Amino acid sequence: MLAPRLLEGLRVLVVEDNLLLAEVTKILLEDSGCEVVGPAGWLQRGLELAEHEPLDGAILDINLHGEMSFPIAEVLRTRGVPFVFVTGYEDRSIVPMAYRSAPRLDKPVPDERLMEVLVAAFAPKRPDSDPQADMLLSARHADGERSLRAGKGAARGTRIRR
Fold this sequence. Notes:
- By secondary structure, this protein is α/β, with parallel strands linked by helices.
- The chain has six helices and seven strands; from the N terminus they run H-E-H-E-H-E-E-E-H-E-E-H-H.
């Protein structure tokens, strides 16, 4: 678990059309204490969840089977729900100006980097968030996770990289 306290209890929408990446992301979030909404692999399903579910944050793949996820981003923006784009597109101009301030990660994304960005984007939604304590705890957990990945007593197998 990378950052249990920082994201614990948050409801996070996952919109990803690659089933393997969606499942790996879901497991990573659940391991960090999140309640995962979805995953949704299609634009229409993502829109339904974004419109009707209580959410604290969202992870959006930009291209969903040939359709862009920007309508989902608009619903989230209107509702005040922070979101992060995760994409295989290198061309940054593909993102409309209205959403360019949202964090954007290029695939493949290492687990640690994804969690770092999610904590920065979503942790302020927690009512008991204490930024200084959260950063200290996050650094301690990241050090512990690196130790586990270096082969010092890893309890789980190696994660699939995005």
